[in-house]
Amino acid sequence: MITYRLLLVGFGAVGQGLAQLLRDHGDQLAQRYGAALRLVAVCTRSRGSLYHADGLDPAVLLDAMLRTGHLRDLPGQTSLAILDLIERQAADVLVEASPTDLATGEPATSYIRAAIARRMHAVTANKGPVALHFAELRRAAATMSVYFGFEGAVMSGTPALRLALSDLAGCEIIELRGIVNGTTNYILTQMEQGHDYAAALAEAQRLGYAEADPAGDVDGHDAAAKALILANVLMDADLNLSDVERTGITGVTREMVAEASVAGDRWKLLAHIRREGRRVRASVAPACLSVGHPLAGVGGVTNALTVTTDLLGDVTMIGPGAGGVATGFALLSDILALHRGQA
Ligand SMILES: NC(=O)c1ccc[n+]([C@@H]2O[C@H](COP(=O)([O-])OP(=O)(O)OC[C@H]3O[C@@H](n4cnc5c(N)ncnc54)[C@H](OP(=O)(O)O)[C@@H]3O)[C@@H](O)[C@H]2O)c1
Question: What is the DSSP letter of 118?
Answer without folding.
Answer: T
